[in-house]
Specification:
Helices cover 33% and strands 17% of the residues. By secondary structure, the protein is of the alpha/beta class. Bound molecules: pyridoxal-5'-phosphate. The site of pyridoxal-5'-phosphate has 13 residues, from helix 3.
Amino acid sequence: MRPYNFSAGPAVMPDDVLHQAAAEMLDWHGSGMGVMEMSHRGKEFGQIYAEAEADLRELLAVPANFKLLFMQGGGLAENAIVPLNLSRGQTADFVVTGSWSQKSAQEAAKYCTSHVAANTKANGYTTLANPASWQLSTQPAYVHICSNETINGVEYHELPDLKALGCDAPLVIDFSSHVASRPVDWTRVGLAFGGAQKNLGPAGLTLVAVREDLLDRALPICPSALNYRTVADNQSMYNTPATYSIYIAGLVFKWLKAQGGIAAMEARNMAKAKLLYETLDGSSLYINRVAQDCRSRMNVPFYLRDESLNEAFLAGARERHLLQLKGHKSVGGMRASIYNAMPLEGVQALVNYLREFESQHA
Ligand SMILES: *Cc1c(COP(=O)(O)O)cnc(C)c1O
């Protein structure tokens, strides 16, 4: 049996997907070629791409007026690509609720005026700011949030409704670490982006879903290969796309469909998160500091109240085949990332170990 891997990303993949990729490594569907060796312009890859796109559109219920783009550079590159495409060099607003949205606000300042509409740093990024309290600028080019803060473990369980706040700007969401774990309310979104390596596939591939009316706002300095209009008009093949990564993500999409789709994944993810948070909350050894109403279902940071036990905790975890539980270096402690591909049994094994370790150190 493989160990349970709680890495925040690159992260655990479904076993079935890895087995299928291994079986098809040297010869995809009798083509005589592995997917890595195929031209992106050939009919074989064309079929792989078309199926991946259609499956993802169906899974996430992406409306017809959104383009799905398979780009490269990860979530961090989008922190520049979004303002290059959407800001018009004017003001964009950022709601800073953790490390990733903080980075987004900082990077955008190279291309536009970056206005921080709210910042929860003062409480250690353990809450979300109520949208009614956001200090939005008068006519921002867009409003950016990180809908799941991977490091701080804070998640929006409802996307903000900008129109209800009297703001016409498109909402941009960085959904890197919870894409495909729950449905997306597209009526509230103008653009969503995410790196693939948390919940979709290999690192490097970046998914962008962008409303069509936002395609033609790029600054003249925007590189052609990063211009959403250019990428959209060329079916993500203006330059050579990350072909193998798209193929693997496509296998993940088929796996998600076989699991019952996003609604089924959401139900499982809720059950997994409930089990883990209840165990942490019921313990006197561990603590999670995030407010109950915005705890992430995907990334669960926690601390040992006695931090001198950290190394012993991690060593014991490794012995029990529970891997990569060390927290991000910027916040310390522990973190369990429990993405779609982490089965309930994996969370159960972690919970058993949490209880065992606590009983030994009571
Ligand atoms: C991982 C992550 C990123 C960064 O992704 P890279 O692929 O390293 O650029 C950005 N935003 C969020 C929310 C993430 O979880």
